[in-house]
Design goal:
This protein has about 450 residues and is an alpha/beta fold. The chain is built from 15 helices and 17 strands.
């Protein structure tokens, strides 16, 4: 597509939204070629310390935990994440705030100019949607003069666009499961090998020790790269108390005693993500100079949209979108059994293994009824197919709504004293759509 600079945010957002999102990737060597070209203007050193985070589930939350600890410690921090829930600007976070519309336009126009110049010598190179966002992020963080940049991989690791970086300070690998199998492999070992591709020679790596199959792959790759490993296992953190809206947990550390840590979330899986982030912070302490008090404060203050987020009283959205994510979500919902029955809203994209996700959701005893809706666009799984699968797995009521808005407001109208909690799950796209509905409703009421 022809590069067009934008006069305002609406034009920039429209241009980027029209770039196909799920086309084939460019070979990483081609991406590296353009990265080297823009490094003539923006050096990697201008991004400060680089923290590179990969994994199937939890990587966004770990990024957010790391960001909050660094902010509490006085650092100027940039964070690149995906996907966004409402606006593309959410992918570029500086000091805890998404970038302004003006900054977004400046980054877009800068990138258009660089692509046009590069195509004079490499005319066949056309960056993908994700590549564009990554390069815009590099521009935004470099011009802001950040001291630390946190990079979340998009898909995989070895061939991911973010893997063009040369000198990370630390690599982190979170929980690995079966997702994006058409790209990454059919087994957790194959997927682990792809995630392990972010490791760089002599760069320390923190990873979750989840099972022997994954551990062996990660340890072997780390050994080949000469990386010092800092692993965290489920034995190294403990949930002391689980309340409806917070979690009291402890971390077993070889370095520090943090005491009891309170997470402001109902999501049990965030204890694991927090433990990974804490271990990563312990490695960073050696270079960054912050202390255990800042670590504890940052972990406790972190808030992360779309991950068991309470958007209204007793209404939660969660971006779980694969088998392992749904298992973690279901575990949280079941452990809130003292809250009575609940309604559950679900949708998914068609390339996910939603049959197994639905089977697990139907095993949640608290779920009094299920509401199925459809994601907009071609990627959304068909409504009838999703509803039929629910009806195969449960004798409870299953309601269908083609429009997410109708599904959401049906639940709000239907709930009563015996069925108060509403959980909305199955895709970050669904979580984003519901968040947008709520934002529009609030703006309408204020107007």
């Amino acid at each position: 597509m022809r590069e067009t600079k934008a006069a305002n945010y609406a034009e920039a957002e429209q241009f980027i939204s029209e770039v196909p999102k799920f086309t084939s990737k460019n070979p990483l060597e081609e991406t590296r070629g353009f990265y080297s070209f823009i490094e003539e203007e923006i050096k990697e050193e201008q991004l400060g310390k680089l923290l590179h985070v990969a994994g199937t589930n939890g990587k966004g939350s770990v990024c957010a935990f790391l960001q909050q600890v660094l902010l509490e410690s006085g650092y100027h921090v940039g964070m690149f994440i995906s996907p966004h829930l409402i606006t593309t600007r959410e992918r570029f976070v500086i000091d805890g705030e998404m970038v302004s519309e003006e900054a977004f336009v400046a980054a877009h126009n800068w990138l258009c100019g660089k692509i046009t110049a590069y195509q004079e010598v490499k005319k066949e190179y056309v960056p993908t949607y994700f590549e564009r966002l990554f390069f815009m992020g590099m521009y935004l963080f470099a011009t802001a003069g950040v001291e630390v940049t946190i990079l979340e991989t998009g898909l995989g690791g070895r061939l991911d666009t973010t893997n063009v970086i040369k000198n990370p300070t630390l690599c982190v690998i979170t929980e690995i499961g079966l997702d994006h199998m058409q790209y990454l492999g059919d087994t957790v070992a194959q997927i682990a090998a792809e995630k392990a591709g972010i490791m760089k020679p002599k760069v320390p790596v923190v990873f979750l020790e989840q099972n022997r199959e994954v551990f062996d792959v990660l340890w072997k790759k780390a050994s080949e790269c000469g990386c010092v490993c800092y692993n965290i296992s489920k034995k190294q953190y403990k949930i002391n108390e689980n309340k409806k809206k917070c979690i009291d947990f402890s971390v077993v550390s070889r370095y520090y005693d943090y005491g009891r840590i309170i997470l402001n979330t109902a999501a049990l899986y965030q204890a694991e993500n927090a433990a990974i982030a804490i271990r990563a912070c312990e490695v960073l302490m050696q270079e960054c100079g912050f202390d255990k008090l800042r670590v504890k404060e940052g972990i406790e203050k972190m808030r992360w949209p779309g991950r068991m987020e309470e958007i209204l009283p007793d209404v939660y959205i969660d971006g779980a979108h694969n088998e392992d994510g749904i298992e973690a979500f279901a575990d949280t919902v079941q452990h809130a059994a003292d809250s009575g029955n609940c309604m559950l809203v679900f949708s998914a994209v068609r390339d996910k293994q939603y049959d197994k996700m639905i089977e697990r959701l139907c095993s949640i005893g608290r779920a009094a009824e299920f509401v199925v809706t459809q994601l907009p666009g071609e990627r959304g799984a068909e409504l009838d197919v999703l509803a039929d699968k629910f009806r195969e797995c449960t004798e409870k009521e299953v309601h269908m709504f083609a429009d997410i808005k109708d599904a959401f407001f049906y639940c709000l109208d239907k709930r009563n004293d015996s069925v108060r909690d509403i959980y909305i799950v199955g895709s970050l796209y669904l979580a984003g759509a519901v968040r947008k509905l709520l934002k529009e409703r609030n703006e309408s009421l204020e107007g």
